[in-house]
Amino acid sequence: VKTRSEYRKVTPEIISSLVEIVGEKDVLTGDKCFNYSKDEEIVAETHVPEVVVRPKDTASVARILKLADEGCIPVVPRGGGTGLSGGVVPVHGGIVISLEKMNKILEVDDDNFVATVQPGVTLAELYEAVESRGLYYPLFPGETNATLGGNVSTNAGGMRAIKYGVTRNFVLGLEVVLPGGDIIRTGGKYVKCSTGYELTQLLAGSEGTLAIITEIMLRLVPLPGKREVLCIPFPNLSDAINAVPAILKDGIIPVGIEWMEKSLIDLVKRFTGKEVPLRDYEAFLMIILEAGSEEEFLSISGRIEETCRKRGATDIFIPGTERAKRNLFEVREQFHTMLTHCNVIGTADIVVPRSCIVQLLEKSREKAADYDVIILAFGHAGDGNLHLYLVNEEGNISQEQTKELFKKIYELGVSLGGTISGEHGLGLSKKGYFPLAADKEKIDLLRRVKLAFDPNGIMNPGKIFDLDGD
Amino acid sequence: VKTRSEYRKVTPEIISSLVEIVGEKDVLTGDKCFNYSKDEEIVAETHVPEVVVRPKDTASVARILKLADEGCIPVVPRGGGTGLSGGVVPVHGGIVISLEKMNKILEVDDDNFVATVQPGVTLAELYEAVESRGLYYPLFPGETNATLGGNVSTNAGGMRAIKYGVTRNFVLGLEVVLPGGDIIRTGGKYVKCSTGYELTQLLAGSEGTLAIITEIMLRLVPLPGKREVLCIPFPNLSDAINAVPAILKDGIIPVGIEWMEKSLIDLVKRFTGKEVPLRDYEAFLMIILEAGSEEEFLSISGRIEETCRKRGATDIFIPGTERAKRNLFEVREQFHTMLTHCNVIGTADIVVPRSCIVQLLEKSREKAADYDVIILAFGHAGDGNLHLYLVNEEGNISQEQTKELFKKIYELGVSLGGTISGEHGLGLSKKGYFPLAADKEKIDLLRRVKLAFDPNGIMNPGKIFDLDGD
User: CA-CA distance, A399 to A380, in Å (whole number)?
Assistant: First the structure.
């Protein structure tokens, strides 16, 4: 296993070989590499790669990986660069393989409800291609410029997990290239499979540390009926969150249930001037529903209203026009952007059993108060995934203290039966906290699995865990 | 890596140690081991284990595995023994660890919709426990005496995959013991997780070759509404199967769509005397639906009828009473038992993209005819999983020819974009065909993954693939 000092540098010979494989204009060096040094994380560590290469086909990826593996040069696969954990930061330098030119939708098979795409296809492109065929890819991790390769690598989640699950639930098969250059195919156009180990799901969520994804088969579903959204204000967050199990036990399966608090709504108002309905209440649930007909929608929303009113809801707001509906979604989607205006010292993407959301939030805020830190938060009430933004307006917290506070919050999440990242991945910025969620025996096992794919440790080194760590 | 000759025998000292771990009455030797020599496969290879041990807790499993690993003795975990691929046959002797006494339902958490069970809990026990709490475990692989540990190990599928998927889609987390005795926990009470490699899904479907499952967290859903079944006759199988994509494209998501042919219906009639409705037609679709209300059911069944009549359906039969409905399900469930009365030379559990079912079946029958073999078949039209029973009434086919014919049929399935086993697993009896579906590079990768978990190769050796094969 290579440690940092043993990785080799990219030599002029390597550059020549890369040019031979992909052509001169797809080998970027010098200043042109700056755009490949980070992702969209707010507080980010950046590293400029030695070279960026943009292959157009699987065979080229295989040749590049063979070259890198033989030369012991780190390789970092990169999609849309929209990640939030520094997963694409080339922390040991080396080669960034950008999949931006492998962006073809290879097939939309409407008999078997499967789309086959290259990894550089964006979510926006996929939505358009399948919806024009009367089919639907239901996952919505939020950023439609994200690529499918990145979505699969981080197992992206989003707002529709109650009904549809997460990215891995839609990945039927993959073509990947191993570090030595071998091309492996997994899965196929079927849901049922008991033929050997489930490599598809092992690769999904592996953050580019095992292999490079060069083709993805995605499960599609029929276009849903009417999509509606309900906004339900509660006197406090606790009542709002506690209504969720009651809604679900009533047999209703919404697409998603988001929670939001007044503090964030006020922030949107402050920075955008946008009027948000019901913004005088302390907390909301935003419930996204799909229904086959107006009648079905009215029946479901009536049941939800009854359940929520019994648990303290003071009103129910159903936007009457498409514009009002869009407005509500936009408010939700702007939270991340709005928060970049604050003095954010770091973010967390914890997941806990959904019954523990309030407990996690209240206790985290208590701990944060000791450090002059406030926590702005929003998240997915239906699936227990919270997005915490730690803000220190005074700017008086040290890096050491920041780490200490995050450690306390993650420990809290784990003690409640949760884990560190629900949908962003550990990447570079969260890996230091991984031992809080996984004991030594488990991380050692992951290291052995990693080496089964990547014996020289060249694949996206320094992410998730260190190979030579303890 | 150990080859067969290097595995050691169970010594009297090992027996004494096992007695010390689990107590005398849960260490079985001699004749008492006969019941642990096979599963429910029709044409089965049997091997009697040297010793059977029945631990009651995880700590005991860990001690047994440590002992076996140090002694280099093969270990075969066993659940209900209802498998169909010889996955629990102790082909190299050694220790069978029967999980039959680890049969507690540890928790049904109705806030988070999660059941936590030990591996020896049967499906029947799970159904009862969760339904009494108003929750539902929707998978129905067919045999309710199967244990959850076995279901997870083979990634059991069943008749409800269109709406619900397969076992792996319901496994949220596991506790497993590795060969050295380390206890590892994966996942938790959440759907979203991007924290390290997805070990839960790698272990699910690994047929006991990586670790022993000692605890399982299963996702539950709300109890569904009305369950109804439609039986729709078609003039031929091709028309029946071709109606399936049209039904699904209409936005309807049935629980399952089964197809069946006259030849099998006649067999049920012949062996049970049971009257089956509409048995004069060549082929049927049996469509299982869940609906929130009678109105919704009538609306959906009306749309299905219209779609099917356009594609040649001559009638639609909706059983009017619970008894008639039950009768229909029973006919379907008896196929496997009925077929044991025929001279079955082997079975296949192929999955193909659902648009290829007819093609696979017709071409397989052509190939079988050359060998005086007829193929009786039924299966899951919605998900492309077929159950083929090869019958040679004359008894004039050799073992070599049988293998040759199976090879041709599997090659056909793979060439259509399918694979060898949709839900039974490869176990002992299908592993010889695995190289038809996976190339050498892929199987080599699986071997390395196996060794990351089980460096001495003691876990259920000789299943899925051989460690020392080529």
Answer: 29
Mean pLDDT, each 10-residue run in order, chain B (470 residues): 78 98 98 96 90 98 98 97 96 97 97 97 98 95 95 96 96 97 98 96 98 98 90 94 92 93 85 74 93 88 96 91 85 83 93 96 97 95 94 93 98 98 96 97 98 97 87
Q: Which chain A residues contact residue B193 at CB under 8 A? A: 155, 205, 351, 419, 421-422
- Cβ A195–B419 below 8 Å, yes or no? yes
Residues of chain A with pLDDT under 50: none
Q: How many CB atoms lie within 10 A of CB A454?
A: 23
Which tokens in the block code for residue A24? 């001169």
Q: Do A353 and B198 touch (CB under 8 A)?
A: no
Chain A positions in Cβ-Cβ contact with residue B297 (cut-off 8 Å): none
Residues of B in contact with A181 (CB under 8 A): none
| DSSP-derived secondary structure for A230-252 | EEEEESSHHHHHHHHHHHHHTT-
Contact A155 B445 (CB under 8 A): no
CB of B201 within 8 Å of any CB in chain A?
yes
pLDDT of B42 reads 83
Structure tokens given for A281 = 């209440």
* Closest Cα in chain A to B180: A441
Q: How far, in Å, are B9, B320, B329 from residue A369 at the CA level?
A: 62, 64, 61
- CB-based contact, B34 to chain A, within 8 Å: no
- Can you tell me the ipTM of this complex? 0.96
Distance CA B390, CA B368 (A): 8
Say if A140 is an interface residue toward chain B (CB within 8 Å). Answer: no
The H or E element containing residue B203 is: helix B199-203
CA-CA distance, A421 to A131, in Å (whole number)? 31
Gap between the Cα atoms of A73 and B449, Å rounded: 23
Q: What share of chain B is helix, strand, coil (3-state, %, to 5)?
A: 40, 20, 40
The answer, for A157 touching chain B at a CB cutoff of 8 Å, is: yes
Distance in Å from the first CA to the final CA of chain B:
14
| Ramachandran assignment for A426, one of left (phi > 0), alpha (psi -120 to 50 degrees), beta (any other) | alpha
Residue B5 DSSP class: G
Residues A351, A352, A354, A359, CA torsion sign? negative
Whether residue A238 lies within 8 A of chain B, CB to CB, comes out as: no
* Among B312, B416, B401, residue whose Cα is nearest residue B363: B416
Looking at the complex, does the CB of residue B452 fall below 8 Å from at least one CB of chain A? yes
| Interface residue of A175, A194, A249, A304 to substitute, partner B, most B CBs within 10 Å | A194
